[in-house]
Design goal:
10 helices, 0% strand
Length: 309
Amino acid sequence: MSRDEWRQADVAGPALWRPPQPTGRAAGQPSGPAVEGTGCGALRVPEVALAFWIVKALSTALGESASDALVNSSLGAQIAVVLGFFAFLAALIIQFKQARYRAWPYWTCVAMVGVFGTMAADVMHVALHVPYTASSIFYALVLAAVFTAWRRTEHTLDIHSINTPRREAFYWAAVVATFAMGTAIGDFTAVTLKLGYWPSAALFAGLILIPLTAWKTRHANPVLCFWSAYVLTRPLGASIADGLGKPKNLSGMGLGDGPVTAALTLLIALAVTYLATTKKDVQHTDAAARTAGTAARDPGRRAMPHEGH
């Protein structure tokens, strides 16, 4: 979807999802202190277009298969979780050191969030014996708390406004919560409700059409549509990964978590190499500034899609 549609969303929408009234040179004066390696005003996330959703879906599936492969390997669950945490932490540090969005650090961080987020959700069930129903509710509350704090602090949940370290910190906190919640919800439908992996995948594929249709028909706030779709891609990808990797007696195809992880890693590497080379998903601050100015003059107007986004 285009930047115009995000920033010119109907101001009559719910307060939590309402885009900000921009001021300053690019979608608002950056809030929060600058840190070394981070350029205030530089956009820190990719453009939300088809390539974004493709790599995001692959990353969600990778997080599920890689987590299961590591936890069930000779390393053991405890060592695997510790390694997953430090890999996630290292990827996050590297991402925060970038001056602006770059494909490899960003998508590596997303992949590591997928792995660690899956482990975090699984630990609650396997180690702490928390039912999937309870863990799904818990992570939903965590995500709601992150969104509420983010909105109250920065006055927007629009990812096109991620141009300071503090906004990016809120963004990654929300991403981690969505991955953990999506993992728990996917296991809830597949295991607790006994739907199995492929019926669960079909369910979430159908559900993701709701925010897509609402955005296409302009019947809902685009920021709300984005985050709804973002949450749903996680259980969708996880269900597909489990359907491919898990044994046939568990409603899977029996390909194995290791081979599925290797295949997904290759596909993500090819996609990110393409994005890093072409820079097709790089947002430009000058375009964002022009959009912000238009939104400030006419905040109630909804824009038509442009430039293929």
